[in-house]
């Protein structure tokens, strides 16, 4: 088995349909400033160098991604660059998936959910709003539009259906069923 660390995530899967993005979050109180931990060069904007501040004897580590969004990236910019095209694909009947991965406290919840109202609304709300805007525009072309979505959280090897948890909390009737060992459906 090859235990090398992958440094170029743009070539990891060899698939142009899979994109890997990084979003840096602002540092919390008491943490090193991003500039002390990471380096980005203008000539290689999709590369990030992680400076090994704890063990400099091992040197810096460079990684390549499809794009890197720095701490000042707005939720709107992130949506336009990463998720809007996924909604467009879904409306054409092409399966689409966007997921956030990272350790606890890395900013996944903020990127996906954001804050209610205003400029800090996350990718999920923006995607749903855009999806309904586009389906409303297309209603004259199609008689019926069916939307199937999943909201899952995988944490410590446990899968949690976020939609079911939300619907139970709001008191709405929920029916949960499976069509096979790999497909789950939530019906309201």
From TrEMBL:
Is ATP-binding one of the keywords UniProt gives this record? yes
Pinpoint the Kinesin motor domain residues. 17-188
Q: Which GO terms describe its cellular component?
A: kinesin complex; microtubule
BP-aspect Gene Ontology terms:
microtubule-based movement
According to the UniProt entry, its GO molecular function terms are: ATP binding; ATP hydrolysis activity; microtubule binding; microtubule motor activity
Q: What Pfam family does this protein match (any one)?
A: Kinesin
The entry's ATP-binding residues are 102-109
Enumerate the PROSITE patterns for this protein.
KINESIN_MOTOR_2 (PS50067)
Q: Which SMART domains match?
A: KISc (SM00129)
Q: Which InterPro entries match?
A: Kinesin-like_fam, Kinesin_motor_dom, Kinesin_motor_dom_sf, P-loop_NTPase
Which SUPFAM superfamilies does this one have? Answer: P-loop containing nucleoside triphosphate hydrolases
Q: Which UniProt keywords apply?
A: ATP-binding, Motor protein, Nucleotide-binding
Q: Where, by residue number, does the polypeptide cross the bilayer? A: none
The UniProt entry's sequence similarity note says: Belongs to the TRAFAC class myosin-kinesin ATPase superfamily. Kinesin family.
Q: What is the name of the protein in this document?
A: Kinesin motor domain-containing protein
Question: What is the species listed in this Swiss-Prot or TrEMBL entry?
Answer: Phytophthora nicotianae
């Amino acid at each position: 088995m090859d235990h090398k660390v992958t440094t170029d995530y743009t070539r990891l899967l060899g698939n142009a349909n899979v994109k890997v993005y990084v979003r840096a979050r602002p540092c919390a109180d008491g943490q090193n400033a991003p500039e002390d931990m990471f380096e980005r060069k203008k000539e290689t904007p999709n590369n990030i160098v992680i400076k090994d501040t704890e063990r400099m004897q091992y040197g810096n580590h460079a990684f390549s991604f499809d794009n890197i969004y720095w701490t000042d990236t707005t939720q709107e910019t992130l949506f336009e660059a990463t998720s809007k095209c996924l909604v467009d694909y879904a409306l054409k009947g092409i399966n689409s998936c966007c997921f956030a991965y990272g350790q606890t406290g890395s900013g996944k919840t903020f990127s996906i959910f954001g804050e209610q109202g205003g400029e800090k609304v996350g990718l999920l709300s923006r995607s749903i709003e855009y999806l309904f805007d586009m389906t409303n525009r297309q209603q004259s072309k199609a008689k019926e539009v069916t939307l199937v979505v999943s909201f899952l959280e995988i944490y410590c090897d446990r899968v949690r259906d976020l939609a079911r948890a939300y619907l139970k909390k709001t008191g709405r009737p929920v029916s949960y069923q499976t069509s096979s060992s790999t497909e789950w459906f939530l019906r309201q």
